[in-house]
Amino acid sequence: MTALYETIADHITEQIRSGVYAPGDRLPSVRRIKSDHGVSASTAVEALRLLLDRNLAVNRPRSGYFVAKPRQSKPTRRVPQSRVDRSMQARDLRTPLSLRLNLGIGNPQRPTLGAAVQGPELMAVTAMNRLVSQAMRLNPVESHSYDAPPGSPDLRRALARRAPAAGMEVAPEEIVITSGAKEAVYLSIRAVTRPGDTVAIESPAYYALLEVLASLQLKVVEIPADPNRGIDLDSLAGVLDRHRIAAVALVSNFSNPTGSCMTDEDKATLTSLLARKRVPLVEDDVYGDLAFEGHRPKAIKAFDRDGWVLHCSSHSKTVSPGMRIGWCVPGRFLNQVEHLKLVVNQATATAPQLALASFLDSGRFERHLRRIRPLFARQVDDMIAAVERHLPSDTRHTSPAGGHVLWLQVPGLDSLALYEEAASRGIHIAPGPLFSAGRRYLDCLRLNCGFAFTDETDAQMAALGELITRQLDR
Ligand SMILES: Cc1ncc(COP(=O)(O)O)c(C=O)c1O
Known about the structure:
This protein has helices at residues 4-17, 30-37, 41-53, 75-91, 97-103, 125-138, 153-162, 180-192, 207-215, 233-242, 264-277, 334-345, 350-361, 364-390, 415-423, 455-473, and strands at residues 57-60, 64-67, 176-178, 198-203, 219-226, 230-231, 247-251, 281-284, 309-314, 326-329, 396-397, 405-409, 430-431, 444-448. It has 3 domains: 1-94, Winged helix-like DNA-binding domain superfamily/Winged helix DNA-binding domain (Arc Repressor Mutant, subunit A, Orthogonal Bundle); 95-122 and 367-473, Alpha-Beta Complex (Aspartate Aminotransferase, domain 1); 125-364, Aspartate Aminotransferase, domain 2, CATH 3.40.640.10. Helix content is 44%, strand content 13%.
């Protein structure tokens, strides 16, 4: 029979192997093991000693037990890398590709061609740090209380004041604050569907939307989308005539992955088509503020007269993804979305809402946007130049007018195989089939342009070019 101290040591060993405790991390103290496992101090000490015997831990007098560092010549450089790789490989068989893509991001976010994240210089890090502290200082008790749905009145007022920039007239009481745009989309889809229903989406589509639909046991009809204009309205109208469609869901402006932006004419046509058919539209407009030039494009919600559009957005792409502030303007589904927000996670964190409200109201947000929009434009341009430099000459790419993703098609490519080959060299991309319920677009991939283009980016693009050429030659 295994002794109790061995069971505890095995448990901690497994936690070290799976990366819960990384090399150099402090291990649970004797006191903590005692209380977690309900054992005596001597059993806890025995367990820790066994970890010493296994060379998994070191004991620093008066400090405690720490995970031993691997005996390698350059431990500090290798440790984070091998830790990420190991956990990714252990999850290979059971982790969806999207999760692996997100595992590659790192915290703080590291430059990546895979996940659609951006560099810290493109967020409002300093201002938001100050405003969150200020919010907590000025609201010492409220900051620690639930800000029950629909969320902070200050923030909803600030968002309502800014809504005309997207062509919308919205009252604060029409807005529900969410934890990011993703939650807004999730709540919206849930509010208007039942398991087994069918949702029409643009194709290719944002992969997280596909995951939301799958998790809610919904079926999907993929409607072709043009890389410039977005969803094909004739195809959609045909599908609406032939099928019972519970909802339509798409990214209206600078879509992910193609960067398409619907015209005002298409937005107006779509809203009247859906109002006629009484079909709700879940609009994700998370990139609308990132137009490279000219005015911000209008939201589809701007054309909605009858409340069938559930408009979802956030400031994850412009201010801070980690603050997790998003919102939904659910139209005629306001009560359902508000109730679901309460059911799903009670409330969004209070201090970030107050901080964002001050940021928007002070005019700093507009200045910030003026600063970052040309930077995103430059990054996309630099990436297009690298694609043209390093990838096969018949590669086709989008030329988005906003956002920070690029969609490529390389005739003959197996982007899933490329994903694996590139990942083993520490280069992450988003393979085409991720963006389709039917696993289409095998010869496509998405590149993130959210980080300043550096020599390292260029080297990664050159390596991708080599991998692609080699694959196509095989
Ligand atoms: C189209 C789209 N919607 C939503 C999100 C996520 O937004 P949030 O972080 O606000 O949940 C992303 C992030 O990549 C996105 O590309």
